[in-house]
TrEMBL record:
Residues 11-156 form the NADH:ubiquinone oxidoreductase-like 20kDa subunit domain. Keywords: Oxidoreductase. The keyword Secreted does not apply. One of its GO terms (molecular function) is oxidoreductase activity. It comes from the Archaea. It comes from Methanofollis fontis. This is F420-nonreducing hydrogenase.
């Protein structure tokens, strides 16, 4: 069994999450060779005859696209590994600005940039938009998470390597959360820095924008368990993926309206920075953008890089 891990537009965190398997990696490499992974070995090009390729990161520039096409040709099975690969991830937010402005910010604008930094001209050009891996090539398995959580990987990686079938939860983050609904009188949307949420009751009920109802689970609701609202890093829940009339934004608005007995229009007025709060992990996904009711088209209109 030959395994490869490819890096596209991402942060390498997904590959590091594989290393987080620690001693279980020994069991994996007893049955499979990791033949290609630019993050963990000095190797430039994937070999022929790969059995499983884990592809991390989104497709944002021409080099990403070229590497994706090559590894798809050379691998029998391809796993979109991590939320960037599955739904475009945070790279998709680059569609909110122009390439020129982004490069200016990254190479010259940020505090850590050296004075006089020159913007390179020999980097691969952006594609006209960000893509999820499945927007461009056939994907055999999707593994979401930013990055996928160690506990989950401990179940799926050995099964993938051995070819064993496994049953996985298809539930949302809310289904994995043990918080109770509290009092929702005088509900208003709070920013994360406002107050400290109580540890017992639903964060959404307390006014914090918790995306648990619209987010795919398998992380054990790790953020709400640590008193932090879910920001949707596992990508959309299955009902949103399956139903054309359901989208992250409209389902969150509906959920809050039902919960608080507030008209949906009033709820919408309270939502701020919709791109970064509702779609930070999915804005680069054609599946999500193509929905009739998606807000993504409006958000990126005019900002195409
Ligand atoms: S999914 Fe998250 S951890 Fe993985 S490459 Fe993208 S940003 Fe990094
Ligand atoms: S909205 Fe958040 S805090 Fe409330 S039940 Fe769902 S995951 Fe838990
Ligand atoms: S609770 Fe939400 S943000 Fe936190 S790990 Fe799970 S899916 Fe990601």
């Amino acid at each position: 069994m030959k395994i490869a891990i490819e890096e596209l537009a991402g942060c390498s965190g997904c590959t590091i999450s594989v290393l987080d398997l620690h001693e279980m990696l020994l069991e994996v490499i007893a049955e499979a060779d990791i033949v290609y992974s630019p993050v963990i070995m000095d190797v430039k090009e994937p070999p022929e005859g790969i059995d499983i390729a884990f592809v991390t990161g989104a497709v944002r520039n021409e080099e990403n696209e070229e590497r994706l096409n090559l590894i798809r040709k050379r691998a029998k099975k391809l796993v979109a590994f991590g939320t960037c690969a599955c739904y475009g991830g945070v790279s998709g937010l680059s569609m909110l600005g122009k390439q020129e402005d982004l490069f200016n910010c990254v190479y010259r604008g940020v505090e850590t940039a050296d004075e006089g930094n020159v913007i390179p001209t020999d980097v691969p050009p952006f594609l006209y938009r960000a893509f999820a891996v499945g927007d461009l090539v056939k994907v055999d398995y999707y593994v979401t998470g930013c990055p996928p959580k160690e506990k989950f990987l401990r179940t799926i990686i050995p099964a993938l390597v051995r070819g064993d079938p496994i049953e996985l939860s298809k539930k949302s983050v809310c289904s994995e959360c043990d918080r109770k609904m509290g009092d929702v009188q005088n509900w208003h949307l709070k920013r994360r820095y406002e107050g400290t949420p109580d540890r017992e009751h639903c964060l959404l009920g307390q006014g914090y924008l918790c995306l648990g109802p619209v987010t795919f689970g398998r992380c054990g609701a790790s953020c709400p368990r640590n008193n932090v609202p879910c920001h949707g890093c596992n990508g959309p829940s299955l009902d949103i993926l399956r139903e054309p009339c359901r989208d992250i934004h409209n389902m969150m608005v509906r959920r809050i309206a039902d919960l608080t007995d507030t008209p949906e229009k009033e709820v919408e007025k309270q939502l701020y920075d919709v791109a970064h709060t509702m779609y930070p992990f999915t804005i680069g996904s054609l599946i999500m953008e193509d929905k009739e009711i998606s807000k993504i088209r409006d958000l990126v209109r005019g900002g195409k890089a």
